[in-house]
Amino acid sequence: MSFLQRIGGELTLEGVGLESIAERFGTPCYVYSRAAIEGAYREFDEGLAGIPHLVCYAVKANSNLAVLDTLRRLGAGFDIVSGGELARVLAAGGRADRVIFSGVGKSRGEMRAALEAGIRCFNVESEPELERLDAIAGALGKRAPVSLRINPDVDARTHPYISTGLAGNKFGIPHDRALAAYLKAASLPNLRVIGIGCHIGSQILDTAPLDEALDRVLELAQSLAAQGMKPEHLDLGGGFGIRYRDEVAPDIRGYCEALAKKLSSAGYQVMLEPGRAIVGPAGMLLTRVEYLKLDKAKRFAVVDASMSELMRPALYGSYHEIVEVSERGAGAPQRFDVVGPVCESTDVLGTDRALAIEPGSLLAILSAGAYGMAMASNYNTRVRPAEVLVDGARALEVRPRETIESLFSSEKRIDDAPAR
Ligand code: LLP
Question: Is 256 a catalytic residue?
Fold first, then answer.
């Protein structure tokens, strides 16, 4: 992350010292760079400049209102997967007509809320969903704009937990049933079919599967055109990978430029749904070393962050680089497993890391802007951390640390609980 620099031995974000952020806001604490988020968004937006397009940020990656606000100001659209995410986008000042709604299990209430808000498009993932949406739109006296999410049966060559474009996944409508599903959609009176959607997985490093999926989408678009149903837009999903360790991330600008060139005369609006590539590299989790536990076969650094704040290593075995914020003081590096206080053996944030640390040292767990805070939990009755947005010289507390009382303030002891 170019916004991350070591100045005089201390790690800084946009030139703001991370030690001072930890002192002001406490640890553990998520810190994001506004400039990094903006820069990453522009790679997509400028890369696609040659054709009509809308970059719909995947809200699930990081749904803090300040992040949404940052992107909204640049003209981003939003890809949502729940009524909760729609409410967040609207609360951040986002425009409903730039929102697309993905997901396999949209409830009636979510459909109603999205129709009433006037979202741009529903990415419908099954035939029963088409029928439900048609009925709800009819009851509201509206026509629902839809695109069908096609499962192209392409292997994204990523972690099996985050691969979504294979025939065996729950996502999307199988490619070979797509035409029939479109004909059905076109026959329903309260739907307006406007696009094709596709998303094959996440943390994709090799863009060849994306190209393959695009070819399948283009084939389908042609078949639809032949039936008089030419789509207005093609939504090619998200999934662009980032560097966590030594991976080579796809060149986003180059990829988008090539896409724009390929589709320059095709007459479609192109949408993308990137999440991780926009916010992942822009954020980190700051944590302090509580104890060094050296009496075991392994050396452990017990820190004040855990799988409750950053679940990815425990859930996927993901790697996040962990670096010392200050280079001063703690002698030669030694190897540690960096672990949290949670009572689970999988509460490991990094294994066998060379670190020069002592109790009190501040560490930065990098590339944690995506699926970090968004997946944080209160497991072990731990408060979720503060979130700070660095914006030039300013450090804005865009979400304060939760308080312990707030975690159970709505719970009741038996005699106080209403019986229903
Ligand atoms: N669009 C759809 C329909 C999606 O399901 C997803 C992610 C995205 C867009 C955004 O994908 P991205 O550009 O962020 O890769 N929790 C996992 C990632 C789960 C991704 C789920 N869907 C992780 O921490 O790696």
Answer: no
